[in-house]
Design goal:
359 residues, alpha+beta, Rieske Iron-sulfur Protein, Naphthalene 1,2-dioxygenase Alpha Subunit, Chain A, domain 1, seven-stranded antiparallel beta sheet, six-stranded antiparallel beta sheet
């Protein structure tokens, strides 16, 4: 497939931390590589290549024993660093080792750095700290995972152009005629791209009951993209005019609801979609009326029933690379286009640096 298809020296979402509770040996394919994910003897998350060096059996079909994984074929046992610690039939051969990847646990997510481990920079993991608030001061957080049979950048396109909510999400978040009244804003901060909508003095329609409440509010949607494909959405309804001065400025500190949209390529034609959302705060009667169960159901409706089939249909309808298809671009595609071009530049630079080092 070629390494130039993906950015390597960066952080991708590998798994929700809670996934290892249900599946202690988790098989996951990312960037075309099969991995086994587990916790070592000290409880630290680790990821190894999912292939025993003896007869190439998947280690994910093995047994987790005291923080080590034992191959179910001939019993070789490997620790969290990938070293073989036991050969039931004699000495451990010098070459008995499995490739290990750098993994960091942060904000309920296991992040993986598939490139050069020496270049891994944990301080560049994007902030999703809202995910740590489940059960704190009445807050809640829901977590979800959706497998999508489409290229991961199609998911990024979808999330950076939220104008689709009016139509594709008519039965969940959209269908209220709000976003057409809004102003689209693109903010490029180099390490982040923000694709935002600001809607002023709109009639508030409760997303749970889908009925107008008589209130007039200001509404914004702020989507933050961090390369290669980690996004955070901040949605807020505010009393009209109270924060009008923030229309063209960062609004991270204002009340609302945060949601994570972390996309990781499985291979060129499929991806993992990790999503989460917390309890909304701020203006509007819907804030107190969205409980955790209703919130989870609403997000599943939007991401699994509405988004997923459409994005998979788009993938199936494409006969070539995205740019080779010569897509018609609209003004609100600016965020997705900027992210695609930024990512392509980063991949090109990384590939050029690797070729120079090998020369």
């Amino acid at each position: 497939m070629g390494s130039a298809l993906y950015l390597r020296n960066c952080w991708y979402g590998l798994a929700w931390a809670e996934e290892l509770l249900a599946t202690p040996l988790l098989a996951r394919r990312i960037l075309g590589m099969d991995m086994v994910v587990f916790r070592d003897a000290k409880g630290r998350p680790t990821a190894l290549r999912d292939r025993c060096p003896h007869r190439f059996a998947p280690l994910s079909r093995g047994v987790l024993k005291d923080g080590t994984v034992q191959c179910s074929y001939h019993g070789l046992r490997f620790d969290g660093a990938g070293g073989c610690v036991e050969n039931p039939f004699g000495r451990v051969p010098p070459r008995a080792a499995v490739e290990k990847f750098t993994v960091v646990e942060r904000d309920q997510m296991l992040w993986i750095w598939p490139g050069d481990a020496a270049k891994a920079t944990p301080d560049t993991i994007p902030d999703f700290s809202f995910q740590n608030r489940d059960g704190i001061d009445g807050d809640w957080v829901v977590f979800g995972y959706t497998h999508v049979q489409a290229n991961y950048q199609l998911e990024t396109d979808n999330l950076l152009d939220l104008s689709h909510t009016e139509f594709l999400h008519a039965n969940s978040f959209g269908g209220r005629g709000l976003i057409q009244r809004g102003e689209y804003q693109l903010r490029d901060l180099n390490t982040e791209i923000h694709s935002n909508w600001w809607m002023a003095n709109i009639p508030f329609i409760n997303p749970m009951t889908r009925q107008p409440t008589g209130e007039r509010l200001d509404h914004f949607l702020d989507m933050r993209w961090t390369a290669p494909s980690a996004m955070r959405l901040h949605v807020s309804f505010l009393p009209h005019g109270v924060h009008a001065d923030r229309k063209d400025n960062r609004r991270d500190d204002l009340p609302g609801q945060f949601s994570a949209h972390i996309i990781t390529p499985q291979d060129i034609g499929s991806c993992h979609y990790f999503w989460s959302a917390n309890k909304p705060t701020g203006a509007g009667p819907f804030v107190g009326g969205v409980d955790k169960t209703k919130g989870l159901a609403l997000f599943k409706q939007a991401f699994e029933i509405e988004d997923k089939p459409m994005i998979e249909a788009v993938e199936a309808n494409m006969a070539a690379d995205f740019w080779d298809e010569r897509p018609l671009l609209l003004a609100n595609d600016a965020g997705g286009v900027r992210a695609r071009r930024r990512l392509a530049k980063l991949i090109q630079e990384e590939q050029a640096a690797a070729e120079t080092a090998d020369a």
